[in-house]
Amino acid sequence: MAKILIVDDEHLTVEMLSTFLQLIGHQTISALSGRQTWDRLAYESPDLVLLDIMLPDDNGLEICRKLRAQESTRSLPIIMISAYSPPMTREAEEAGATGYLSKPIKLDTLKTAIAKTGVK
Known about the structure:
Elements: E1 3-7, H1 11-23, E2 27-31, H2 34-43, E3 48-52, H3 60-69, E4 78-82, H4 89-95, E5 99-102, H5 107-117
């Protein structure tokens, strides 16, 4: 069972992802902003982060870059999620993301993306 940090400013997205992840055996924690993300990471050690690109106070791509720059989170799997059209896959990869999912997120696609990270 993995501990997964869900970062998204849309409450319904967080609830949907959290419910699904818990049903398949994962533990979830959430953050609704960049600031909350850093607060959670100060005392939690997730096995994976699902990170929205557009947050009210920060940019998910920049958060990803900062996580990659820190020794303690350099290898933390990060799956970027976004409703941007066209998808920002290249930008997410350049920021250091492990994967990228477009909203609306299909649960089978999420499960596959998590499996690709090696997180169990």
